[in-house]
Design a protein that fits this description.
Elements: E1 2-3, H1 14-24, H2 37-57, E2 64-67, H3 70-84, E3 91-95, H4 100-111, E4 115-119, H5 129-135, E5 140-144, H6 158-168, E6 171-175, E7 195-199, E8 210-214, H7 245-284, E9 288-290, E10 301-306, H8 311-318, E11 322-323, H9 337-341, H10 346-349, E12 352-356
Bound molecules: pyridoxal-5'-phosphate.
Pyridoxal-5'-phosphate binds at residues 69-71, 99, 101, 146, 150, 175, 177-178, 199, 210, 329-330.
């Protein structure tokens, strides 16, 4: 079976698994222990993983807060900022093409007295910086815009967006779950970006671990926010709870490997994508259209509309040989809000399929599409 649902999740790399097993077996210490080797070793492992992830992001190690994944990072951030800064304003801006882990939190905040503006997106799911600029108000406390869209692969221009937010003195958060480990990015160089969420399982690391990156303020302290969890005070008090050492170690190792192979992976993913587009175009000619853009995108993600075919029927038929999906794994039961936001009607949404490659997909395997 050819697995082409890597935007939903990726298999753990053998090197990652091997490292994790050590911390699931003999090295079982609690990093908060301090006085004996088991604890000291676990603490060192978490430190090393923080270093590896920081290197991939080009962030300061102190700015990285480990969480259980991007859903948690988004929740900590959106609710934490909303509560901490509510006396300054109750207006938040996001887009119509966000992941449900942002949109649902925004809806929850709306039910609790906050006002949310949902920016329109263009035909590929990107927001317009000018529209953002016009939407920012005196009482806006946060802007949250996805970096790479999980259904279409399109990239928002986070640098331009950060520039707008910096100019207006408003915090910017980005859900970078789909881009970390896939495109080169430098947190340090995007000063107007205050918060970033990411997850390990999208880059061949384990499920159940992610990070929230928080910018240090001018006094060297992390931008304050109200924590969701209260407890032992781990992770600067922002994310209390005993460290999931094996998962954190896995995330660090996955980040290290992704960082070392970024350029090579991008080249391979682009070739895979080009090849699939070529085969599909040859085979289906007038009966397909591409929902994804060809430029400014995450390499290896293609969203295709098979005109006149129902995506669920097609996916079930393909499933013994090709694993793909209709879009977001988290809300596949509902018709995609992202595809509706880019202007597709419900029929067109139900004809659309996302194919997402991994850097470890073999080029020869793509030929399977010729035999469909
Ligand atoms: N944000 C985006 C853009 C995603 O693609 C996903 C995963 O599908 C998430 C958030 C949720 O991440 P996690 O599974 O780590 O909670």
């Amino acid at each position: 079976m050819l697995y082409l649902d890597n935007s939903a999740t990726t298999p753990i790399l053998p090197e990652v698994k091997d490292k994790m097993i050590t911390y699931l077996s003999e090295e079982y210490g609690n990093p908060s222990g301090k006085y004996y080797d088991l604890a000291i070793n676990a603490e060192a492992a978490v430190k090393e993983a923080r270093k590896q992830l920081s290197k991939l992001l080009n962030a300061d190690e102190k700015e990285v807060i480990f969480t259980s994944g991007a859903t948690e990072s988004n929740n900590i951030l959106l609710k934490g900022v909303a509560h901490y800064y509510s006396s300054q304003g109750k207006h938040i801006i996001t887009s119509k093409a966000e992941h449900s882990a942002v949109l649902e939190v925004c809806e929850y905040l709306e039910e609790n007295g906050f006002e949310v503006t949902y920016l329109d997106v263009d035909q590929f799911g990107r927001i317009n910086s000018e529209e953002l600029k016009n939407a920012i108000r005196q009482d806006t406390i946060l802007v949250s815009i996805i970096w790479g869209n999980n259904e279409l692969g399109s990239l928002n221009d986070i640098e331009a967006i950060a520039h707008v937010c910096e100019g207006k003195g408003v915090f910017l958060h980005t859900d970078a779950t789909q881009v970390v480990g896939k495109i080169p990015l430098s947190w340090k160089d995007i000063k107007g970006l205050s918060f970033l969420s990411c997850s390990a399982h999208k880059m061949h690391g384990p499920k159940g671990v992610g990070a929230l990156v928080i910018r240090k303020d001018r006094y060297g302290k992390l931008i304050p926010l109200t924590p969701l969890f209260h407890g032992g005070g781990q992770e600067e008090g922002i994310r209390s709870g005993t460290y999931s050492v094996h998962n954190i170690v896995g995330m660090g190792e996955a980040a290290r490997i992704a960082n070392n192979n970024l350029e090579k992976n991008t080249k391979h993913l682009t070739l895979l994508e080009d090849r699939l587009i070529e085969i599909l175009t040859e085979k289906f000619s007038d009966n397909i259209t591409f929902n994804s853009d060809r430029t400014n995108k995450i390499p290896g993600v293609i969203n295709v509309r098979f005109i006149g075919l129902n995506n669920e029927v097609l996916l079930k038929k393909l499933s013994p040989i090709i694993a793909a999906s209709t879009g977001s794994a988290c809300s596949s039961a509902k018709p995609s809000h992202v595809l509706q936001a880019i202007g597709l009607d419900l029929k067109e949404v139900r004809e659309s399929i996302r194919f997402s490659f991994s850097p470890y997909t073999n080029m020869e395997d793509v030929n399977i599409f010729k035999e469909l």
